[in-house]
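Much of the work behind modern protein science is quiet bookkeeping, done one molecule at a time. The fold becomes a row of whole numbers, each drawn from a learned catalogue of backbone shapes. The protein below has been through that process, and both of its lines are reproduced in full.
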Amino acid sequence: MGDVVIDQAQAFPRELDKLLKAVFRGGQTAR
């Protein structure tokens, strides 16, 4: 159970980073 929590804790920032980069790129191309 503890391993799963750690796994999700590590995966979330990665997904968030990908999302932020996608939004950033989208914002750049929109301009």
About this structure: The longest helix spans residues 2-30.
